[in-house]
Amino acid sequence: MGFQDHFSAHAGDYRAFRPTYPAALPDLLAGAAPARGLAWDVGCGNGQLSTALAGRFAAVAATDASAEQIANADPRPNIRYAVAPAESSGLDGSSCDLIVAAQAAHWFDLDRFYAEVRRVARPGAALALVSYGLLLVDPMLDPLIERFHNHTLGPYWPADRWKVVDGYRDLPFPFDELTVPPVAMEADWSLPRLLHYMNTWSGVKAAAKATGANPLDGFADAIAPLWGDPERERTIRWPLGIRLGRVG
Question: In whole angstroms, what is the distance from residue 123 CA to residue 235 CA?
Answer without folding.
Answer: 41
